[in-house]
Amino acid sequence: ALSRSITSATTAEEAKNAFLSFEKITERIGSLSAICYIRHTVDTRDPFYEKENAFWDENLPLFTDRQLDIYRAMLSCPHRPELEKELGKLLFDKMEIDVKSADPSILSLMQEENRLQTEYQQLYASAQIPFAGKTLTVAQLAPYKQDLDRAVRKSAFEAEGRFFDENREKFDEIYDRLVKNRTEQARRMGYENFIPLGYIRMKRNGYGISEVEAYRKKIVEEMVPAVSELKKVQQKRIGSDSMQYFDDTFLFPDGNPVPFGSADEILTAGRQMYRALSPETAEFIDFMFRNELFDVLAKEGKAPGGYCTYIPSQKSPFIFSNFNGTAGDVDVLTHEAGHAFAAYQAAKQNLLPEYADNTLEACEVHSMSME
Questions:
Q1: Is pLDDT at 30 greater than 90 in this prediction?
Q2: For residue 351, what are the contacts with CB-CB under 8 A and spacing of at least 6?
Q3: pLDDT per residue over 124-156, tens digit each?
Q4: What's the sign of the alpha-carbon dihedral 171, 175, 181, 182?
Q5: End-to-end CA distance of the chain
Q6: What distances in angstroms separate CA 79 from CA 75, 87, 235, 271, 348, one per listed residue?
Q7: pLDDT higher than threshold 90 for residue 75
Q8: Nearest alpha-carbon partner for 148 in 22, 19, 255, 260
Q9: Does residue 144 contact residue 82 with C-beta atoms inside 8 Å?
């Protein structure tokens, strides 16, 4: 109904109001799906949120299809020149990219893709690895992979490897189905393979495949030799006869730096740092702590990795990570706080979601510069 209102609008104002009505719906749906994702990843074994997550896997592609109807209506609206002046040309550039990302013919494949991604995440999160008289997740095994004793490091990597070996068939099956699914999506959309469609879904509007190929070439020519030299220096420093996979992240002969204190103490130190950094970061970090917008401890059933997401209706970022007693705990906290601070600042400007939600590489500027 809203897309029809945009198409048949007699004035630019009428079209804009219909579009903004849809943005309100987007805010609500985005908020509910974000809360579900947080709850599901915090404990992938929770049966209620497992079902809720399955609902979103099935229904988010259907919502995306309706969203693209709105975008198509905006792009073909007779009042587009006036709307571009008021809402900005970049909004329409982003819509042009998005409408190339999906169509009704691939909805069932997108639903299957979501289910396969969830299946992968749950399988990974199910890891129960016996090591050093304990049962550990992949994240909890990390300190042993940086142990002073080379034999312990090797054993830790082998213990992790056994989990993946034992589940090799299932991981391979998920991967194979994902590759075939995404290839079929691309072909139905008129692309030779998934690569062009993958670029479109990254929403890049300033560069493309050829520029990335040139960048990769520079990595091979300039970065790989530099890293090779650094690895020789590292090998000499740690006194190893050769560099093996279990030596790669071991940096100093007396061990890697580790954070002082418990997870709570690391968080408290982070809060003190952000309070001292600037009035803006002080306001941000107090908001995050006041509203308990963290889940950082590695634990059984928790999804792997770390992320920052955003709950639009609450104007709230949320930080997820797996603290395991390594320097990575500090890295991931500051990294995700970079995303969260950017989202918090954008929220204060009441931007349209299309403007507040930046591309992945822009996000990494926020996170890596904060590190």
A1: yes
A2: none
A3: 999 999 999 999 999 999 999 999 999 999 999
A4: positive
A5: 46
A6: 9, 12, 65, 48, 29
A7: yes
A8: 255
A9: no
